[in-house]
Amino acid sequence: WILFESRLMLVRALLFVFVLSLPASSIAAKNKKPNIVLFLTDDQDKFLGGWTPMKQATRLLSEQGATAQNWFIHTPVCCPSRAELLSGRYFHNIVSSNGKGCMHVNDSRDFEEHTLAPYLANAGYKVGMFGKYLNSFPRPRWSPRHNDEMENALELPQHDNATVFGVSPVDGHRFPSEHYIPPGYDRWFANNGGSYYKCAFTDQKSTYSCRVDEYSGYSTSVIGNTSVQWIKKQLQASQPFMAYIAPKAPHIEDLACEGKPCPPGQNWGAQPSPWYKGYYKGRNAPRTPNYGFHATDHHHLIAHQPPITAEQDKQIDALFQSRWEALLSVDDLIASVISTISQFPGELENTYFLSTSDHGYNLGQLRLPMCKLNVYDNDIRIPMVIRGPGIPKNSSFEFLGSNVDVAPTILGMAGVQKPARMDGKSVLPHLIKETKGLPESVLQHLEQSAHQQRLEGAAKWRTQHLIEYFSLGNVNRMQHYVDDYSNTYRAIRVMDPKLGDLLYAEFSRNETVYHPNMYAHPGFFEFYNLTADPYQMHNIYHSSPKHLTEELRHILQQQWSCKGPSCA
Description:
single chain; alpha/beta; 28% helix; disordered N terminus
């Protein structure tokens, strides 16, 4: 670290001499904080080839940046995963204690005032939100159910509880005419995922309803074009910005079946744009070794899965095709954003891009025909690609990363010190090998990280990953339950040279309200060695050395109760 800091000082000295000969416009570009663009898809897996359709993103992001080989989420369902990403905090630190909230997340005012946007806004950034935020949005200007008690709250305007409803002309959906906008956002064009075609967004404090005569009324195109317009405005003003772009794809939608009742099971699928519909016709879902496998030694939900029928095989293939086709428009969106930024001299080289997902997916694995919600790798392993100043081109990294690391990483790009309440860590110090030409804010972040390492000692990056999920109850898809009350769990995913490549999981006893003692006496255990069993087909908990499972239980308990600095 001493050599690293000396190198930073040398680079700064050389930059000072160099800028004396630069024109004023170049000096301004060098001193400007980097722009940041986050692309977040919905249900895009890594395990089953979910990145494969992203040909343009591969060329523009993967080949120009770094690709994670072991990036995970902590809670495999929409609202908790997105809340963890926005806050940099684990589920157990943002969970609702009364069974309410957004899929058990306490999405209160206190939560929203300690997410990415307020910190970036205070650092001089303009922040834009385009697409899916949380499933609890849109909401009226301050909902009475929210807890207004704040600890160390940022200075923000007061909100009232007035709600006046309007009606969307597209589908009659009732939206508040004065929408609540979370703090920190300069541009707010958001919804809860909505529909691919009959879509509506909170556009600042009014409602935008998608129209066929504008971008074919297709939500991904609407989100893409709206975000590009805003990005252009920021670039024209030389204003550092963070754009959070979150299309619905490739999440399912209830298909209309052209106005007729859908055949059983056929109403589940993504909706591609008209110009990509049928592009992957005949392409079938991967038949992994655990596809249709009856795992009788797993917890109740999995052990009692009925067989996948021949008709359901066809439905799974149709779902797989529609997902890939929907992702083609996301690929176009990413290419358009990068093309727009490249039109402004020096800005592409001063922009960080992150592309990831909120969780993985099932397509027949362990007889689960679709959805996520479970503890296994196809549910929790997701894509992550990072491009930007100092990130080695066409590279990959093996260390464990997760969605709680996204917020600290983005704050590090902006030169904002990580708040103590955040559980995740910035990955930038572990990715950036060359400091030449780095934005001043990133140099500052690297210096802070080096100083912190000296204070704490040369701590290694984590070798285990916490997973936690609280059941949403009985969820039925294609005549299969993909969730039930046996499916509340906490787990630790281990990638450690000493312990191995492991998954250890504890399932609670049908709890209905989250509480700190719910795993004192778990109802079921699962344990897998992924070196020998990468598809998690054989539960070896009862045949494994007790000292090993006890050690893993101890690690899990530590992680499940950690907060901020005490988290690995």
